[in-house]
Amino acid sequence: MKKNNKIKNQLFALCLASLDTRLQAIQKQIVEIQESLTSETKSSAGDKHETGRAMLQLEREKAGVQLSEIQKQQDTLAKVNILKTSETICLGSVVYTSKSNYFIAISAGEIKINDEFFYAISPITPIGKLLLGKRRDDVFVFNKQTINIKAVI
Q: Considering the entire predicted model, what is its pTM?
């Protein structure tokens, strides 16, 4: 059991670090855009100036959407209880299948721990939706492949 908690702790910590890295990058981008907006001076080519400002505004809006998405993922990750174990796959479960291993939390991509690979996925992804509620030895089909659930932690 101790090994299982260690894997969950490591997966959780790496998801948290991934979010933190993305958050810092977006915040830096927002600051740079804001500085560009405030430092831009009116030139004799008025249309060019307005186009530049409009582009920066669009970039700021796009960064704001990305920031909002990261905050949603932080909220989801905050709901993960890594101490909880369940026979049924739910948020926070580590799932071993005949094809891949998954950590049901947030979409953070592939994570390697020791010699094992895990995909940190959101429960709202297509594979996440299929896994939720399943148990060990259940079988499901994804991308025309039959997949067997070997273990749920």
A: 0.85
